[in-house]
Amino acid sequence: MDIVDAIENRRSIRNFKRINVAEDILKEIFTYASYAPSHYMTESWQIKLYQDKGKESFIDEIMLSYQRIGLVASPLDEKSKKMILSMTEFLMKIPHHALIYFEKLDDPIRFEEEYASICAFIQNAQLVAWKYGVGMLWTITPYMHDKDFIKAIDLEPTKHKIAAVMQIGYPESIPPNKGRMPIDKKLEIISD
């Protein structure tokens, strides 16, 4: 697949087939993703990949976080219990959840450089995945900032930053191309 074709035709996938992506393909996707630009060649991205039964405790912690941060009423009423059950079932149907994280740096400039590099890693992963017919959804969610959630997944809130959680699997359906705004509306050329 041509890189320009992949960039233009890749879509964020929200509905996945209920089959796992083979581990060797996942490793290839993340291997190629690691060719992202990395300041000082730190390659600071780390991945926790949740699948099969490993998703259960991860999703349980997400639901607990939603209660702590107020996205779901606590103590649980009947409506909240149904909401948690529905969200849990939805998340369990996604074959893989890849939590991308890195070590925090005290220097704000270096922190931004590392974060930018990790975003390039994530985009590379999405493009390579598309080559293999694998879809991803790059998510940024409130539980990523919940210190108790971070501890529950064996990370340290003062030491680690969760950059994203990627939902991964073979697409059940592919959204249509919505096009993009003409670049002339975004591009300012300054020659003098």
From TrEMBL:
Domain Nitroreductase residues, every copy: 7-170
Entry-linked InterPro entries: NAD(P)H_nitroreductase (IPR052530), Nitroreductase (IPR029479), Nitroreductase-like (IPR000415)
Descriptive protein name: Nitroreductase family protein
Protein's organism: Paracerasibacillus soli
Taxonomy of the source species: Bacteria, Bacillati, Bacillota, Bacilli, Bacillales
